[in-house]
Amino acid sequence: ARAQIGVTGLAVMGRNVARNLARNGFTVAVHNRSPERTRSLVAEHGDEGTFVPGESMADFVASLERPRAVIVMVKAGAPTDAVIDELVPLLEEGDIIVDCGNAHFADTRRREEALRAQGLHFSGTGVSGGEEGALRGPSIMPGGSAESYAKLGPMFEKIAAQVDGVPCCMHVGPDGAGHFVKMVHNGIEYADMQLIAEAYDLLRAGLGAEPAEIAEIFRDWNNGELESFLIEITADVLAHTDAATGRAFVDIVQDRAEQKGTGRWTVQSALDLGIPITGIAEATFARSLSGHVDQREAARRAFPDAGEKWQVADRDAFIEDVRRALLASKIVAYAQGFDHIRAGSEEYDWDIDLGGTATIWRGGCIIRARFLNRIREAYDQQPDLSTLLVAPYFAEAVAAGVPSWRRVVGDATRAGVPTPAFSSSLAYFDALRAERLPAALIQGLRDNFGAHTYQRVDRDGSFHTTWAGDRAESPA
Ligand code: NDP
């Protein structure tokens, strides 16, 4: 039998995507640079469906029905280009290369353009959910041409996670749209995790609680509006005891957070587009800061005991304050992430469906959460929504949380507990809702030192004041 789709690159992710396809009844050609991986996949999982192993790339390509669809799941960067270069001479017009690796969307745009010129489709496809997701149903974010989606869609929608009978997969848009949305997904994941980490830190400092006790608080939160995969696994990690020492697991792990770089890409792109994704940026910088061990050591010595002693009077009220502040901060992070997607969509002409994006993140991926239904509803009701913050459900949750948010950030500041993401989200909220911003003064300074001109509140046009001379104003 001819294979309906092929997967090359059979490390954890590719192997599991291939198995997922086979388990769902598709005939899957499989290939890997070193053939041992191909052989072991068939030996260990051959009974799960129909695999067509190819020892060489040529055999692999020859086993595919036309138009051919080849998923590339190798290390991002140069290896992806190497595999594409090997594939291209073996393919024919109308065939489709799918890059399911974590590529930067700019690379995807470049590859798509080059392959389009050669008559091939290139679908840069974001896949989230890690190893387990790849096997049992990930969230899939395919970019590329509508023709390529006509072939890929039915297969991807079948192997994707399903929520209320709806697949966590949709055609995101042309060229780099899929990888862009995956990138912002990862950025939001950074923000979400930083906020959760700060909430834990606040509970620990404010209540003097042990990790196991805080695990219970998160477990309880997971029954409400905050219900999500990340909150659920936070409870698991906090409840875990280290077997070697008998101590709380979280206390034996070094406090230096690592990153593979998608958070950084998100922030870089947002800077280019002029979109203030402060939550994601703070989260990314917080990880960097945690890794600056020497500076942390020096500062710790220079400034011991910089805060007041924190004494929470009412335990339950404090927990509720932290929960509300977490929810409000999280809403800010998502509002910013969706602003970023909208800006990317406009800049690159992708026409991305924002509500649809929330829909395909409801299952399979790391940020899957109940709350995403509300985002979809918000965009369904008002597709041109200026910011998620003002959609009825979110506006209500934020308004209800504001006093808690201010108490938590204020108390943490006095006690010297760092809350970069909580506090910057609150600052973002206050800046957005401010009647007047001190940006007016900045305009004055820019005009003073650089004749950059300014606009007036009472008249149209641009103006300049001769600061060094008679201070007369003239139209610019
Ligand atoms: P790795 O990123 O570790 O890549 C290993 C695979 O790449 C192997 O199949 C390897 O072949 C192949 N490879 C490396 N260099 C070359 C080359 N020059 N030519 C041909 N093949 C090459 O594997 P993962 O499964 O972890 O990830 C695959 C992709 O999926 C990556 O882009 C990753 O970013 C992305 N991803 C990963 C997730 C995860 O949770 N791990 C989640 C979502 C996406 P060989 O066996 O011959 O060495």
UniProtKB/TrEMBL annotation:
This is 6-phosphogluconate dehydrogenase, decarboxylating. It catalyses: 6-phospho-D-gluconate + NADP(+) = D-ribulose 5-phosphate + CO2 + NADPH. The lineage of its organism: Bacteria, Bacillati, Actinomycetota, Actinomycetes, Micromonosporales. The gene is gndA. PROSITE patterns: 6PGD. One of its GO terms (molecular function) is phosphogluconate dehydrogenase (decarboxylating) activity. It is an enzyme of class 1 (oxidoreductase). Keywords: Gluconate utilization, NADP, Oxidoreductase, Pentose shunt. Pfam families: 6PGD, NAD_binding_2. Residues 178-468 form the 6-phosphogluconate dehydrogenase C-terminal domain. InterPro entries: 6-PGluconate_DH-like_C_sf (IPR008927), 6PGD_dom2 (IPR013328), 6PGDH_C (IPR006114), 6PGDH_Gnd/GntZ (IPR006113), 6PGDH_NADP-bd (IPR006115), 6PGdom_BS (IPR006184), NAD(P)-bd_dom_sf (IPR036291), Pgluconate_DH (IPR006183).
